[in-house]
Input
Amino acid sequence: MIATVYKSTGSWYNVKSESGRFFNARMKGVLKIDDITSTNPVAVGDKVNIEIENETEGTAIINEILPRHNYINRQSPRFKHQHHIVAANLDQSILVATLKEPKTSQGFIDRFLVACEMYHVSAFIVFNKSDLYKTKELEKYEQWKTMYETVGYKVLLVSADKNE
Output
């Protein structure tokens, strides 16, 4: 049965079958993907083949990872020659950043956008917490908005707290 990975927590994955049923699944033994050295072979967004383990408890075994359309990764924090797959089979990505409490660095934003470009995933940037911004942060937002929009990214300013 084919399912999509919705959540990854350690060795357990929350998957949704094509019929719409959710299962808690784990990998069968060691799954390897050709030409990818990854710290996590199964990622959110992956299409996987599952076998129901216990119908009543809603558990399943992942026995195959289907080919990916694309994925975004980052270097593994522990193993410099491996990478950690953040998500797979993406149509677009949204980076939620903040200019205050905490401040998202421009370097982080740029690295994220480079990863998206590298794997052909369209991206846009949402700056949250606008309700906390004073003149200094609003000026920085306008500066960054102009810079990122000039190179083709959509940039939004929101306040999740104020629902704006």
